[in-house]
């Protein structure tokens, strides 16, 4: 299975601009720039897209873990916060924090935590990051 995304950049780092697109068309020439990445400009940035991908991947992985335990979630809400910091030689993603709230009929707190930890470790996007991944998981 291969999924594709693309980007086009024109100009210099600070005065240039770019667009990102996904093969599915969900993103099509979506604007990004220095200000959307390192300041608070309007548009997206690679870290925001990674955060959305991680949240989506984790939610699906948690659903799979719960299914293996005979449980089905009514709702899983995940937010991923990707931290971009200055490191030796430039910038790097230094941490990802997942905040998860789930409503799972019949789930015990222990079963939920076990499934959440399994999802955090097993999610393909989690495996992609070479950084610390923390999590707050709450069963409601």
Order of helical and strand elements = EEEHHEEHHE
CATH superfamily of the largest domain: K homology (KH) domain
Distance between the termini: 35 Å
Number of β-strand runs: 6
Task: Extract low-pLDDT stretches.
Answer: none
Helix residue percentage: 25-40%
| CATH topology descriptor of the largest domain | GMP Synthetase, Chain A, domain 3
Mean pLDDT equals: 94
The top-level CATH class of the largest domain is Alpha Beta
Q: What strand order characterises the main sheet?
A: 1-2-3
Radius of gyration: 17 Å
User: Hey, roughly how much beta strand do the residues contain?
Assistant: 35-45%
Number of domains: 2
Topology:
Blueprint: E1 5-10, E2 17-22, E3 30-33, H1 34-38, H2 46-68, E4 75-87, E5 90-103, H3 109-122, H4 124-128, E6 132-139
Parallel strand pairs: 5-6
Antiparallel strand pairs: 1-2, 2-3, 4-5
What is the structure about, briefly put?
With 140 residues, the protein is of the alpha+beta class.
Q: Care to describe what's here?
A:
- This protein has 140 residues and is of the alpha+beta class.
- It folds into two domains: 5-38, no CATH class; 46-139, K homology (KH) domain (GMP Synthetase, Chain A, domain 3, 2-Layer Sandwich), CATH 3.30.300.
- It has four helices and six strands.
- It has helices at 34-38, 46-68, 109-122, 124-128, and strands spanning 5-10, 17-22, 30-33, 75-87, 90-103, 132-139.
- The radius of gyration is 17 Å and the shape is elongated.
